[in-house]
Amino acid sequence: MEQISLAHIATFTGILLILIGLWGVLTQKNIIKIIIGFSLFDTGTHIIMVGVGYLKGKTAPILDEAVNLKNAANEIVDPVPQALVLTAIVIGLGITALMLAYALRLYQRRKTLEINNYNDLKW
Amino acid sequence: MFKKVFIFIVLIGFALILVESYNFTGSGEELNEIATRYAEKGPDEVGAANLVGAVLVTYRGLDTLGEVAILFLAASIIGFFLKVKLEEEKVPRKVRKTSEILETASKIITPVIFLFGIYVFLNGHLTPGGGFQGGAIIASGLVLMLLANPIKKVNHSIISIVESISGFAFVFLGILGIFLASGFLDNSFIGLGDFGKLLSAGAIPIIYIFIGLKVGSELSGIVSNLQETQKEEI
Hints:
The structure holds 2 protein chains of 2 kinds.
Chain A (H helix, E strand, L loop, with lengths): L5 H22 L3 H22 L26 H32 L13
Helix pairs in contact in A: 1-2, 2-3
Chain B lengths: L1 H23 L8 H13 L5 H9 L1 H23 L16 H23 L8 H18 L7 H25 L23 H26 L5
């Protein structure tokens, strides 16, 4: 049987997080819980992206003493997914803060966070 | 009932899509073309030991500019949205007194956190870290300060001045790259210096300082805006 690598565990965890997050967004009735679900979805995506960019037995894309400069391309993992994830984390943070601000305002207006009480858009 | 079945089908569909990425993981043996080029030419072209930083600030600098713009947009929407004051907010907010331990600790630890944040974005081109992480650490220092003293007023004019100046400087350095080097956000118009030293990688440390200040002030603005609209009595 093939040995289970760290990258596989990471991707599996990421998939679980995405599914839990999506389930939370689709089923929960409390706005804060929906935001938490969205956050979990976000984190799962990041873990999968880093896991997919991982190459077996290679080191981080930082060229210090651990890496031979002449042979760097064969010793490091892909830096591009990591840079993308860094971007995605910051944007995820901004979006989460925005959603929490909306939730705060909604609560101050209506004194409730149950999504069923907001039926203005119902048709 | 129908709704639950529907949700179940959507989850199964998502799981099937994601299983593909699970099968793909670990199948690669070597870097793809673009990453190989970054790894081989990066040290000579950009001079940053942290290749992620090189990709983020120089090769894909435009993405970073867009990201900073998105963060700015989120921060300003939050500010705009929460500033629409409700009328009955004249009474000062009553809060529970914070504990002695938290107050004393925040006085000692907050400057250290700020210093650590500055260290992280100054060394962004050498070690893991960079402007975004450093900025987030600085904002977390502000959160600790506000936890210790929940009715503290944060000076918004300082935050917006730092934010505007650093955003302008980031774009200005990018445009300097067009005239003095080969393109927008090219970092090589300042000498590349010794590879792996603090003063290396051309304009990357300077750009990272401005990104760090900008992200730090934006996140601090978000935190203080959220703090000011709290009015529940504890």
